[in-house]
Model the fold of this input.
Amino acid sequence: MIKIRLIPTLLLKKGHLVRSENFIKHNIIGDPYHEVKRFNQWNVDELIYLIIDENPENTNQSIELLKNISKSCFMPLTFGGQIKSMKDIHLRFQNGADKITLNTYAYRKPDLVMEASKVFGKQAIVGSIDYRDINGEKKIFINGGKTLIDVSPIEWAKELEKIGVGEILLQNIDRDGTAVGYDVETIELISSSLNIPVIALSGVGKFEHYVDGVKAGASAVSAANIWHFKEMADHLGKTVMRQHKIPIRIG
Done:
């Protein structure tokens, strides 16, 4: 039986750990090195770090940060942000990433996804989809939620699978930081239409929301803010999932 993964997502801006709301408000809340050490002691299955600062001048800082994080990270580590080329992808893997996630440049350069999938294996390439509701229709955004693309999340998810990603990280911008729960309708639509795993992200405000995501078809459930403001978030989250008969990994 496939075990459902529980994954913290940590957001980094200018080297600082931040909490996010609707991709617009960002508040500094901690140190990224402290957090990875804390998660090593917790019962989580993987860890995702996303650089949300697109300033290319900070690329070297991001690589140095990844290198230092990976030295003390004893779980699978996904790293995303500021990736525009095969050179960038090589640098992430050389400095400790187990997977990388592509968003803007998966759309701008689909050949990059195809090449990366061939070189590193599709299991190491995560396609990140950010979307929101526009006049009653869900549309994807790139450039950190700034640029609207007239494509639905389901259309883009199918295309990402076709060009070689091994997993989808699905995030509803309108729910980011709101604690109102996952967009289960879209999770269900996409997970039922693909042959690759879907990681649900954005909207978690209580541990029962993980259950909603799994019931909608997610293979992994992720959150950001709840990990910073709830004590024993790993244990309590998995306890709720276990109470609902969800198969999980026991650390």
Notes: The chain has a mean pLDDT of 91.
